[in-house]
Amino acid sequence: MKLENEEALDNLIICHECYTLHEEVPIKDGTKAICTKCGSILYRYDSKLVEHGLSLSIAGLIFFILANMFPLVQIEILGHEQFITIPKTFIALFTNGFYIVGLLCAFLIFIFPLMIFTINIVLFTLLKLKKGKEFSKELLVLLSHIKPWSMSDIFLISILVALVKLIGYAQIHMGTSFWALILFVLIDLYITKRIHISEIWMLRKRIFLAKGMR
Amino acid sequence: MIEVNEDKLIRCPTCEAVNIDKSEENICRRCGSFIHKHMHFSTQKSWAYLITAMIAYIPANLYPMLITSKFGVQEGSTIMGGVILLWEHGSEPIAVVIFIASIFIPVLKFLILIYLLISVKYPIGKDKKIDKHKMYYITEAIGPWSMIDVFVVAILAALIHLANVEIVAGTAATAFAISVFFTLLAAHAFDERLIKENK
To answer: Which of A90, A169, B88, B107 has the CA that lies 20 to 30 A from B194?
Structure first.
């Protein structure tokens, strides 16, 4: 295989599921390229990626804040009422002396999701303004390191499992935050599925290349 | 013009850019991070994390995950005990979910990682019938789901603390969380290039 220079490697892509090498070809706006071997999505082309990414991240952050402010679920046992919020779940672990699990949970369901959405907002704003070449690079590296450690979706399923365990023992009322958390998780999943990290890298390259030429 | 062998092209684990494998001191041309720099002890790091995870998985199954105290009487239930209890009480779907998340996925992950780590060093599984890249991808995708049980315990412990009835997390919760954490690290530390080199 012959290449002009190392930059020409950007025209190649390796499938993230089955490691097959592909050549990147231009595709129509709003369509996606699929791996010929395993059928997973290689990349998409979205001419309004920055706008979509920015608006989704802001919406996600708003729902995340809402999800942390109000009660998640409320139960009634033997005339007593109890409710939990997201921060309360890991703070309760701390007060019971489970520091390791508490710390882990705090990072997985609170700090990392919050960081990811904040980074996304800053990143897309920088790309929108066509500024911060080096800083956007640092943010992208940080983003791909913490992305596998964000577990809001798993936490949502855990709430459902916990509630099913309580059926019959207690009366359960869903709080405001529960619905906010569902919306947050849906946005989070949508961003993860739709906006692949390599697409943001390519976008960044196009933006700063065009800027450099001017 | 540069001439590149297609087999020498690798993917950066951080930013997914295609790079030329220079065998040592690989620094990604796009994001600047190291691409598995320790070639000489390539699998050791992953092995170390994996063994830690497996050791932590033993107390996770022996000690109680959840301690319920009703009117002063304490009762602990282990992971498997909890699954059996749920099944007997008629919540089979939840029993299945907990079983898959806490026992099936961690054990499957241990086995896949052991298989991958051995197969890249020694000549087994060379029949190419199994796509090892796909296998690795699956382990990465299902791994975090074993955290379900830890979260459930955290939620129940935060929710149920009344005067007479209280639920507290057990020792196994810490052990299990540590086990999941180290399995995730082991999977991240695994160098996908090794699969390619040993095809």
So the answer is: B107
